[in-house]
Amino acid sequence: MISPTKKGMNRRTFIKTGMAGTAAALIAPPAFADTLMQIAVSDPDTIPKLVYRTLGRTGLKVTVVSFGAMLTPEPEVIRLAIEQGVNYINTARKYMGGKNEETVGKAVKGLRDKVFIATKVLSESRTKTEIIRDVETSLKTLGTDYIDVIQVHDPTGMEKQKIVETREALTQLKKQGKVRFCGVTTHQNEVAVLNALADDLDQFFDTCLVKYNFKSEKAVLVAINRAAAVGVGIIAMKTQVGGYDTTGLGISPHQAALKWVLQNPNITAAIPGMRDLKELKENTSVMGMPFKYADQRRLDRYAEAIDPFYCNFCGICELGCPRGVEISTINRALMYAEGGYRDLSLARTTYADLPKHATAAACMDCEGCTAHCVNGLDIAAKLDRARTVLA
Length: 391
Ligand code: SF4
Ligand code: SF4
Known about the structure:
Order of helices and strands: HHHEEEHEHEHEHEHEHEHEHHHHH
Oligomer: single chain
Number of strands: 10
Shape: globular
Bound molecules: iron/sulfur cluster
């Protein structure tokens, strides 16, 4: 994505000069800029081997390891990734208490033509006016004239009027050239969402950002392949199953988890969240690596370590709760707070988005939890924890 346009420069040379002229000089404080320069210049292994796949019917050629920006506080890290050729950035207004789009905006300044940007409309926006206002705000915050992929969250649960207004708003924005493609996201209910996209005769949504990892059910894989067969571009998120702290394991399972997901050619890209240069290097160097037996062994150990607290957000336990507590979303919020994310702001925002009756507050006067986890998690303890950490 970088060097072919720069006559007389190979990619590494361009990165060196690019770093000097752009990220280092533009936004980074001197010490941090120096660090970036040193890494970009002195460590050839930092520069990933770029591998691309086509994002379904959008036709966008996307690096298979792309950038999930939700955890990245420094624009310089995103900028370095772009300068190294990573060309798809996923953000959302909700991330980092609203600051994440701003960070991405700083990162892409002067590099907009090198990168595709995906963001989301706010899930609470219901009307055409609200959705258009959302996108206009994102455009302004990102400092761009267009968004490549605008995403809405799980349309299968939306009431009909909201679907109509969402489609009208996005159609208008596409006509105006403010968005190029529309997509959906799903953390749970993955099979239903993917099948709905596959069955949509209008083919309105071109992409699906779906939770998919080595612990996903086989049915999710089947649905991914079905949606991909009709041209839906598939981006995988939560590929590291929550990115839990693995220092006690003595190994990092993160590369293995990414490789596992990318084995399926119907997954266009994964967007692991990357906080810093170490994580950037660890993740992007996976491009082109095969999944091996040793990777499977690492994943087996990782699974064993996280099984006592891993929730796959299947929602089955909610059938046992007479009060409609959204246990899966509460567990997701807890994961943001206490898993590898360590993002209390996102955790609390996710929790606060729930209607009051669906929060753990509804459990206060409940005489004994009748919700049961298919994976054996102690739901009452989780809800107790949620009241302490998230309320
Ligand atoms: S404690 Fe009661 S209200 Fe809370 S999830 Fe369990 S059954 Fe539902
Ligand atoms: S707590 Fe268990 S049953 Fe409930 S959503 Fe999580 S994994 Fe599924």
